[in-house]
Design brief:
The structure holds 3 protein chains of 3 kinds. Chain A has a single domain, classed as NADH:ubiquinone oxidoreductase Nqo5 subunit (Beta Polymerase, domain 2), CATH 3.30.460.80. Helices cover 28% and strands 26% of the residues of chain A. Chain A has 5 helices and 7 strands; from the N terminus they run αββαββββαβαα. In chain A, strands 1-2-5-4-3 form a 5-stranded mixed β-sheet, with helices on one face. Chain A has a two-stranded parallel ribbon with strand order 6-7. In chain A, α1 runs antiparallel to α2. Chain B has one domain: Cytochrome-c3 Hydrogenase, chain B (Orthogonal Bundle). Chain C is of the alpha/beta class. A 5-stranded parallel β-sheet of chain C has the order 4-3-5-7-9, with helices on both faces. A two-stranded antiparallel ribbon of chain C has the order 1-2. In chain C, strands 6-8 form a two-stranded antiparallel ribbon. In chain C, α1 runs antiparallel to α5. Classes of the chains: A alpha/beta, B alpha+beta, C alpha/beta. Chains A and C meet through α4 of A and α3 and α7 of C. The complex binds iron/sulfur cluster (SF4). The site of iron/sulfur cluster (SF4) has 12 residues of chain C, from α4.
Chain lengths: 189, 380, 233
């Protein structure tokens, strides 16, 4: 199969899925918007029939205003030489501890790493993903840190102290009535 | 209390035992740990333990201006920082639909290739040291240092350059820089023979590295292996050629491959790549003087720069593999979200865990270095 | 009281040494100590990348008598090369406590001084000398190999002049360090090393060795039991 055939093929394939929106951003970049329910089916088709065998990454974006998480699956085809980004949105479930989604580990093995990462950083639980334990943040018991409502700066100021820098030259200046002026908006509480 | 991860686990009535390698261990590349379950000296299973280098980059970047972030992106992969700056700039340019002037693109490619050389030299040394040969690590680090000197002249920084910005590069190359670069390349070529004799064709090394950590092409594709590690299994895929960015499609270079997929194949691919980079740099030295014009496109006041709304996924080929950034902008002064797909996030975790099974203890360090896994890319 | 030949080396507690040769002996010890140091470089952060050049042919740290060492128990210097994330900090402290005295800590990089460019980060500890006594800081992001070597020489000078005593501070003010560690890791933080016992052994306990934090530690500290080996032959 050459590139053009795959691209044609892709168009027919994508037509099979309901509520799908395809945007060709450039020659090698395709953006696809799908509802969460049909995303696994789409990936299955892409891998099985359109040679998109490489899952490059899964990115997660937090949209607290819409109460949604956006998941983006970037798949690359070695034959068609094009990168397809499948965007989908899932409810954020602020009230509960975790949002839920299904794992695509059985389609793409690399998904396990990204899903574990998203689970730690955003608290999205992927059902049937093989490694859903802590990996990077084993010593962390706060909320998932990458969520927009976690204020890292506040946390840092509450938890850590800052070293005092008060060298000789500054002391001399201060004795003469000078010193470092800090604008009110720059004061770290 | 001891940290939970380091409790000894008694496995009653069996000969199996656990061994922890790292986080502070000379056979581990950086601050990273690997837990092994062993029977005798055969590995039954391995488990990676990352997070020692976690700084929450993606969170940090959401709290800083677009231009401030340039200072922290190179820190994500320390031995090979230039691709980080370039790919971040590429995403911003893609969102802003900005065109980088040709001369800026050529200079970027020059840095990318120089950085690849530096990183590969570093890896040769590390890989050889895990097999007990320390001379290549002295040579590799010393030769890499000469590349760092060139970087210092070009950018002012030895390791972190912060030289690429969205729109191009900060300033033009200094006078006579290309001559010195050319001298360095001459020097590297004279060293080729020495390196071959010492390392790549040395039977002591070859016997140690052959048939260790084998992965075939099918498995490699399944597990998402990229970069030189994928090319060592026989698939000639390179982002530079197949998904070209900057001016790579105007350059003439080959994609070296090997078919064995073991540690030896991986280091040989890197060796060939290094000399391909030399070839690319030679073309740049020839062409760059004839490419006239500015080195960067004008950008708005960087301190009050609201990048327009949009998202972009850009990839480059770093010395470790495919490196990608997914950047989302909501039209504000700071990025809304930056996701870093580290080139070794697959290699250091899942691929390593799978490869370790059935190997002997002493080969684990070698496998890790041969994959050129970079822990800070995993942790971010 | 230990003796070398007929010369008493240590004075009894509370007494001044009278033997004039004792001072000479001290100087000799300090001189030798400062010239053969084994360092354990814990690659905690990005500053570690400048150590290979500093150690190998180009800058060659070995000419100063400084060599890398692979285990903490035989090392004299702990190099903390860069930011320490909380997860790493636990291991750094474990490593430090296993080292034999006299031991020295060098904090390389601005990140160990005051958080550096990661001051906003929720995952990194900011001021290293709250958790460990630091002898020398080498600031810079990242310090060049020359700076690293300069820092090493500063440490050597300090030792030679008899000023490198930060390790004693850890025993003398253990409560302070332990308190900061507990603040970060939780009250059940405990290491396998018996610092208080060691402090007693070296005769370095002061009032500040004990305090509320050591009392918390005592409440749940379990004596370590030797682990049964089960390897069959
Ligand atoms: S001071 Fe700079 S080089 Fe050193 S650890 Fe911090 S960021 Fe890295």
């Amino acid at each position: 199969m050459n590139c053009e055939e795959i691209n044609l093929w892709l168009d027919t394939l994508l037509a099979e899925i309901e509520e799908i929106e395809v945007t060709r951003k450039s020659e090698r970049r395709v953006r696809v918007d799908v509802p969460a329910s049909s995303l696994p089916a789409l990936l299955e088709l892409l891998k099985g029939k359109a040679s998109y065998v490489h899952l490059s990454a899964i990115s997660c974006v937090d949209w607290p205003d819409d109460e949604e998480f956006e998941l983006v699956y970037h798949c690359w085809s070695y034959e068609a030489k094009s990168l397809l980004s499948a965007h989908t949105r899932i409810p954020r479930n602020s009230a509960q501890e975790f949002a839920h989604y299904v794992s695509v580990y059985d389609i793409y093995k690399p998904a396990a790493f990204f899903e574990r990462d998203i689970y730690e950083m955003y608290g999205i639980y992927f059902e049937s993903s093989p490694y859903m334990e802590k990996f990077i943040l084993t010593e962390w018991n706060g909320p998932p840190p990458m969520r927009k409502d976690f204020d890292a700066e506040q946390y840092v100021n509450d938890t850590f102290n800052w070293a005092d820098y008060h060298p000789q030259w500054l002391q001399e200046l201060e004795e003469d009535g000078g010193g470092i002026a800090v604008r009110p908006e720059d004061i770290r509480l | 209390m001891r940290p939970e991860n380091y409790q000894l686990v008694a496995l009653p009535n069996s000969d199996e035992y656990e061994l922890f390698i790292g986080p502070n261990h000379p056979g581990i590349e950086g601050n990273y740990a690997f837990k092994l379950k062993l029977d005798g000296d055969r590995v039954i299973s391995g488990k990676a333990d990352a997070g020692y280098l976690h700084r929450g980059f993606e969170k940090l970047m959401e709290g800083r201006l677009w231009i401030q972030n340039l200072a922290i992106v190179p820190r994500i992969c320390v031995p090979d920082p230039v691709p980080m700056e370039v790919v971040y700039s590429l995403t911003v340019e893609d969102i802003e639909k900005m065109e980088v002037p040709l001369r800026g693109q050529w200079i970027r490619v020059m840095q990318l290739e120089l950085s690849r050389i530096a990183s590969h030299l570093f890896t040769f040394g590390g890989h050889a040291a895990t097999t007990g040969m320390y001379t290549p690590s002295y040579w590799g680090v010393a030769d890499r240092d000469l590349a760092l000197d060139l970087f210092e002249e070009l950018t002012g920084g030895r390791v972190y350059h912060i030289y690429n910005i969205p729109g191009g590069v900060r300033r033009d190359i200094p006078n006579g820089f290309l001559d010195r670069l050319s001298d360095y390349l001459d020097y590297l070529e004279t060293r080729q023979n020495d390196y071959d004799n010492l390392l790549f064709t040395n039977q002591v090394f070859v016997k140690r590295a052959r048939n260790v950590g084998v992965i075939n092409q099918e498995q490699a594709l399944e597990w998402g292996v990229t970069g030189p590690n994928l090319r060592a299994t026989g698939l000639a895929f390179d982002v530079r050629r197949d998904d070209p960015y900057l001016i790579y499609n105007e350059l003439d270079f080959e994609i070296p491959t090997q078919t064995a997929g073991d540690c030896l194949a991986r280091i040989l691919v890197r060796r060939d790549e290094l000399f391909q980079s030399v070839r690319i740099l030679r073309q740049i030295i020839k062409h760059l003087p004839s490419v006239k014009g500015p080195v960067r496109a004008p950008i708005p006041n960087p301190l009050a720069w609201n990048v327009s709304m949009g998202e972009s996924y850009c990839r480059v080929e770093s010395s470790k593999g495919e490196l990608a950034y997914y950047t989302v902008s909501d039209g504000g002064p700071k990025p809304y979200r930056v996701h870093v797909r580290g080139a070794s996030s697959m290699h250091a975790v899942q691929v390593l865990e799978n490869m370790a099974v059935g190997q002997r203890i002493e080969d684990i360090a070698q496998i890790m270095f041969s994959l050129d896994a970079c822990p800070p890319e995993v942790d971010r | 009281m230990s003796k070398i030949g007929n010369i008493p080396v240590n004075a009894q507690a509370g007494k001044k040494r009278t033997n004039p040769l004792a001072g000479v002996f001290d100087e000799l010890v300090q001189f030798c100590q400062s010239r053969s140091m084994f360092m354990l470089h814990y690659c905690t952060g990005c500053g570690a990348i400048e150590l290979p050049p500093a150690m190998t042919s180009r800058f060659d740290m070995e000419r100063l008598g400084i060599q890398p060492m692979v285990t903490p128990r035989q090392a004299d210097i702990l190099l903390v090369t860069g930011y320490v994330s909380v997860k790493t900090l636990k291991r750094v402290i474990l490593t430090y406590e296993q080292m034999q005295s006299p031991k020295y800590v060098i904090g390389i990089c601005s990140c160990t001084v005051n958080g550096g460019m990661y001051w906003q980060s929720y995952a990194t500890a900011k001021v290293l000398n709250e958790y460990l006594p630091v002898d020398v800081y080498i600031a810079g992001c990242m310090p060049r190999p020359e700076a690293v070597i300069e820092g090493m020489r500063r440490l050597m000078r300090n030792i030679e002049e008899g000023k490198g005593h930060a390790w004693k501070d850890y025993f003398q003010r253990y409560d302070y360090y332990l308190g900061n560690q507990q603040h970060l890791f939780g009250d059940d933080w405990q290491t396998p090393t018996d610092i208080i016992g060691e402090a007693r052994h070296y005769g370095l306990e002061t009032e500040q060795t004990y305090g509320e934090h050591t009392r918390i530690l005592e409440q749940h500290q379990q004596p370590l039991e030797p682990h049964k080996m089960r390897i069959k032959f």
